[in-house]
Design brief:
Arc Repressor Mutant, subunit A; 5-stranded antiparallel β-sheet; 2 domains; elongated; alpha+beta; 12 helices; 4-stranded antiparallel β-sheet; Jelly Rolls
């Protein structure tokens, strides 16, 4: 599959699983959604898309996004090295060009919007999409993206898509420390099994991930309680707790006071 469309009813988080040698571009056709990767978090709507190299990341919906739309619909352009090498008669190893990102938000200009609409028509009317049309649309996309990303050439753009930047373990943890990601989710972002992730975490932080992350979240919450007048439920959410009851229980256990009592002390 080169082009695809997917509807995602209301959800909290959906993983985009790693696929070896698969880069992609995602248009938002309906609704609003966020994307979380190892070191990036971005909000997307119909005026923005995301260009991603081959890596794990998540689609997420926050409360405001869920209120704005009951369903998110995305259109994806999937790019594989074997396909583009055949289509363009390129040898991707001949370019040393690279991008300084793994995932990037892209503004949808009129040309990209027109391209998205044309793909939408082909997906909804597959009888129109013969092989030559699909190949030409993929060529059009590569040309548009090469220019929008200021790549020296189409070869350089395509070659750079399949050169992921190595993000350190610590960077991934610190960037996602106050999210609501589970241990399994963090392991996925780090491209590790859960057991390997726990072992690596203990080596780096000299603590278990569950204990370390919980303490950091509570320390951040304690700081926010003193710094601002935000609702306690908002602070709990901001530091990555999905349940106010869980936050209150853990906070009281650590500090010997409820969050409201701590704020007034």
């Amino acid at each position: 599959m080169v082009f695809g469309k997917q509807s995602m009813p209301e959800f909290d988080r959906i993983p985009k699983e790693y696929a070896d040698n698969e880069a992609c571009f995602v248009f938002v056709n309906q609704g609003e959604v966020s994307v979380r990767s190892q070191n990036d978090y971005m909000n997307l709507n119909k005026s923005t898309g995301v260009l991603a190299k081959c890596l794990h990341y998540f689609f997420e919906m926050n409360e405001a996004q869920r209120k704005s739309s009951e369903c998110v619909e995305v259109i994806a352009v999937l790019i594989y090295p074997s396909l583009v090498e055949e289509l363009f008669e390129f040898d991707l190893t001949q370019s040393n060009y690279s991008f300084n990102f793994n995932i990037k938000q892209v503004q949808i200009d009129r040309l990209l919007e027109n391209f998205k609409e044309s793909i939408n028509i082909l997906i909804d009317n597959p009888e129109l999409a013969d092989e030559s049309i699909i190949k030409n649309k993929l060529k059009e996309f590569v040309l548009l993206m090469s220019k929008s990303q200021n790549a020296p050439s189409q070869l350089d753009f395509l070659s750079a898509l399949f050169k992921p930047i190595d993000i350190s373990f610590k960077t991934t943890i610190q960037h996602n420390l106050y999210s609501s990601l589970s241990i399994d989710d963090l392991a996925r972002l780090c491209h590790l099994s859960t057991s390997s992730f726990k072992r690596k975490f203990s080596e780096v932080y000299e603590d278990t991930p569950k204990k370390y992350i919980a303490v950091k979240k509570l320390e951040k919450a304690a700081s926010l309680l003193k710094l601002n007048d935000n609702r306690i439920s908002d602070i709990a959410y901001d530091v990555g707790f999905e349940s106010l009851a869980t936050f209150n229980r853990n906070f009281s256990k650590r500090y010997g006071k409820s969050p409201s009592e701590y704020r007034l002390s």
